[in-house]
Amino acid sequence: MKLFIDSADPKEIARLAATGLIDGVTTNPSLAAKNGMDYVDALKEICASVSGPVSAEVLALDTAGMLAEAKVFARIANNIAIKVPLTWDGLAACRALRADGMMVNVTLCFSPVQAMMAAKAGATFISPFIGRLDDAGQVGMDLIREIRAIYDNYNFDTQILAASVRGIPHVRESALAGADVATIPVDVFRALLNHPLTDKGLAAFLADAKKAGIRIRDE
Ligand code: G3P
Q: Less packed terminus of the chain by CB within 10 Å, N or C?
């Protein structure tokens, strides 16, 4: 499964990109508002540290407006993916952008049928928001499973990008359900390797080596 970072903070993203384990980035207007930077400037900085797809979300609600904003984003770098909302105008923009060879991420997906429509419009990525469905009393992961089944039934090549990820269980379950990508907030990404038994085991190895005077000699 590919791992994207769900953030618009270029400095945090650059730090995580240094792990070599970041496959892309997703941003949205709410994330952009958090760091107070100009959105286009932030995207430029992000594209300088990540070579995989970087999603940039349009603000216009009409197709023509979305395509005009997409042109601005497309000038930033070759790895920009245009993020459009799951509306009729958004899907029309998706078709036009795909015909132009752009990557498109269709966002704000909350139902399997919406995801099918996005795939029919040629979306590169579909973004089901699992955390927000959980918040609303539904089971977000069921949406990932149902989209996986529909896409596999008809060989749609749209990639399922699990979004609104709130913790490690979401990452684990997305991988088990066959999501192609999970986009992960910075704090969750940092916690991915955490396990108390890893810490305990490492401390015990080092204590045993110290007690026995074990050294790694360079001959
Ligand atoms: O990429 C957008 C999505 O991840 C939003 O997450 O936590 O605001 O529901 P959240």
A: C
